[in-house]
Amino acid sequence: MTSNTKPQSKNLRHLLSDEAKSRQNSPLKCAFRFFGQPGMTFLGGGLPLSNYFPFDKITADIPTPSFENGIGAQITEENKSVIEIFKRKELNDPKDHHVELARSLQYGYTEGAPELINYLKEHTDLIHKVPYEDWDLIATVGNTESWDSTLRTFCTRGDCILVEEYSFSSALETAHAQGVNTIPVSMDEHGLIPQALEEVMANWIGNQPKLLYTIPTGQNPTGSSLSFERRKEIYKIACKYDFIIVEDEPYYFLQMESYTKDKAAREGKAVHNHEEFVDALVPSFISLDVEGRVLRLDSFSKVLAPGVRFGWIVGQATLLERFVRLHEVTIQGPSGFTQSLLNGLLYKWGQSGYLDWLIGLRAEYTKKRDVAIDTVAEFFPKDIVTYTPPVAGMFFTIDIDASKHPKFEEFGQDPNKVETAIYEQAIKQGSLMIPGSWFKVDGQSSPPQKVLPVNSSKKNIIFFRGTYAAVPLDQLIIGLQKFAKAVKIEYEL
After folding, report:
1. Regarding predicted confidence, which is higher, 408 or 454?
2. pLDDT, position 442
3. What is the rounded CA–CA span in Å between residue 218 and residue 394?
4. Residue limits of the Aminotransferase class I/classII large domain (predicted)?
């Protein structure tokens, strides 16, 4: 998986928080390495005897690659595979690489079940080809927990971090609750602007931020995606100013073709094989990282199911070791049921079958994106509403010129009041999209940092975030038609 020609990561332990630096190894967890060794009578831990676990076997029906009827097709006798995972190791077929229930339901590896971690390392090497030697991968219970642990590992109350000027509200609240200041960096329709990041850092006063938190692909809420060129520029800035890039990437595999109104041309742009699929992915920050200053937060939430609550962090081993020490006394590890079932599914599919699944997702999300943008183009008033079709993720935005609202002067030329009026009218019409102001970063450093001036042509533009992921196509069209009606009512059209 690795090569001797790869460099070692850079020592970045000086960026750790006081909490992370002071955290000691758990003696009890160290003792667990002797559990199950031949000839060892283990009397040292509070591990219940697995005979008392009331779960003897779990079974799951899963679809069989290559998912020729589509990934949303009903599972039938003709297209299904069956996973059977027994409590007792000897009842499981060794070729299936199963994590038996006696092990997965026991206190176990904080890093994650070795079989599952090995699969994910192979997957990471296949997709990202991390370019330094000493990288590693640990399990989490999803990107929300990964981000919380990242903040605790690197930040102390009062520290500042860099974030996109519009960002995932839950991620912002996680930082605020820990007393971490979020400093916005300007964006455009293509994501975070490298020149704006350079400007913020060049004019920084005082203790510099340790982290840049970014959702580079299918950004939440804007739907924007960073190009390879921008990612390279941002990575250079991170090296120059010595901070860590945290790439939160649950939507990475929901990349798709550029939108075209030509429906006939859409068919010819589809990805048909594994090589085309992998080559079409925008290279990740972790694939550019030669110093070990990228932490990649990955998850199955958007590609398998949110409720499995399983994610993983890729990064340099020295830094991830501090996460493990934190997890030993917090989450302990992801659910044993989840690990056994996910491991069973992934080894049943193999790396090839998982790529087939991701290719199928790409096709489905491309179709839903196209329908959403087609509907916006057809029903929304063109002299008031503009949009940029996303090339990844689950979200799209519509930009609305608040200054053209008939009550703009009455509202004191306040775009937020126009936003509220449209939101409330849309609710009356039976359609919910989320106001962009809900995602606005309002943090500020002390003393205030210099920021780029607001583009005057954009200052009265508001936006709403929609998703094409949550409903069937017919409901997607109806919902957008209702929202378009609300806009027309508000603008007296």
Report:
1. 408
2. 80
3. 7
4. 101-441
Pull the structure tokens for residue 409. Answer: 């002067």
